[in-house]
Design goal:
Helicase, Ruva Protein, domain 3; two-stranded antiparallel ribbon; Dna Topoisomerase Vi A Subunit, Chain: A, domain 2; homodimer; alpha/beta
Chain lengths: 201, 201
Amino acid sequence: MEYTKPLARLIEHFQKLPSIGPKTAMRLALYIVKMSQNEVENFSNALLEAKTKISYCSNCFNMSCSDPCEICSDQTRNKSIICVVGETKDLMAIEKTNEYHGLYHVLQGLISPLDGIGPDDIRVKELLFRVNQNNIKEVILALNPSVEGEATSLYLGKLLKPFNIKITRIAFGLPMGAELEYADEMTLARALEGRVEISLA
Amino acid sequence: MEYTKPLARLIEHFQKLPSIGPKTAMRLALYIVKMSQNEVENFSNALLEAKTKISYCSNCFNMSCSDPCEICSDQTRNKSIICVVGETKDLMAIEKTNEYHGLYHVLQGLISPLDGIGPDDIRVKELLFRVNQNNIKEVILALNPSVEGEATSLYLGKLLKPFNIKITRIAFGLPMGAELEYADEMTLARALEGRVEISLA
């Protein structure tokens, strides 16, 4: 059976999105048809608006409607710390913790020789430029604990060393609420490696 | 942290869709920003087009751009059998098997007293009208094996009985490839109940 054309087209568009398979795409498309005309128009406009209005901050490469972005232009933030992340979504995850009040640098990717992504394909130059130009005291590397993340951290660590600033990376270990018994060996090994002395007052 | 406005709006729209949680909505929205302008425009148009062009067949209540729908107006289909389904997606699932060549009737819901959905809220009247007016020989009930599906099947069975036509329902039992050992009790009970005699030629 063939789907009626406009439905087939919509299903195809949904299927192009990440993590949406053919069954979900069909369910979403059918749901759209059942939504009110008004809601669909708003959704349709929101897509266009997000695409046309959002661009990248020329300083930290965060997605934003303004340049510099809201974070870079926020006067209350600590401008002497830069937290380096791989993608905008990582920045958002850190912002949600409400624990960090410095600046960011979005690399827009991680070094991955297998995928043909080298240091020149991500925003490394721009990071060095910022560290060089501004009075940066600390760079926090907050990259995924994956092969690519580790390789990128190592590479950035070496490049940043000559600046004589504090270079840190986020801690890897057991997630909160986890049970030791069920943790994988890699995580447990990193948790042991990264052990911290307890101060007994 | 607050998302930049157009992004927040798009995330909100994605989150309204079924099976899309806040994390997926964010991932999809970020993906949209990274897509090409052209692709986003096409997606945006596909949404509007699906909503404006697709309506329901006034005969079988299938979603379609034409009325009667492609299936109802297909002269090669057997017009003496009606397969009754709950939703358009069930019709699509059956069409994909390529095993059925009769007509359909989409109830647009199932009887569910707990949700306040009674027989008058779904397309029961219209089904009886079709069975009464046309020369229908068989009605196949293909409703979900759920409490609502069973209740609706039972109700329709009673209403259709006076027409003196063949009334059947699809078989419930073990899915292909399943293992008896792992089947739940309900399924196994229905499989036993619906056992079929083997013809030894």
